[in-house]
Amino acid sequence: MYQVVSDKKIILIGYSGHAYVLAETILENGLEVIGYSEKEESKRNPYNLSYLGYENEENFIGWRSNVSFAIGIGDNNIRQIVASLIENKRKSIETIIHKTSHLSKSTSIGCGTFVNKSVMVNAFTVIGKNVILNTGCIIEHECVLHDAVHIAPGAVLAGNVTIGERTFVGANSVIKQGIVIGKDVTIGAGSVIINDVPDGKKVVGNPGRII
Q: What pLDDT shows up at residue 176?
């Protein structure tokens, strides 16, 4: 059974494109973002958040505060690295679920995952930690998504699909039922995947081909 985000105060890691979407959802859920972390203060500040410094610095205020974190970083590798840093500091990473999404009650979902608007997740799906399920994607029954996966807007995973760690599934792509996708794979937008894909490959087209 998945759990929605707690009522803790939150620091946002990252403050650009993907982080804006995440911040909007956090605020719409009635939660407080006390500020953001970046290498330097952002010139654009659409949510009027306080700049709190950089999480890689030992004196970062977040390490001394009783707060949780949300990671607004779209890059799978960087997001997983930042998540490990936060966990090593014994801080929590919140799971953020948009109110318009629908997750089956039998869904298992890891900490730090972001479920965006109009996402559908069906029965007995297992979602790892720090996953992004982006706008309007569909995850059918009994899929398994490992840690730090990013499913882009409009993508469809038919039943029993397995996605390896840090794999990116491009917008409006479709993955046939029962397919196994390895870790660190990139699937191009609009691709149709009808065969298993080994680790580390890039796949494009309909039907999908490795390039």
A: 98
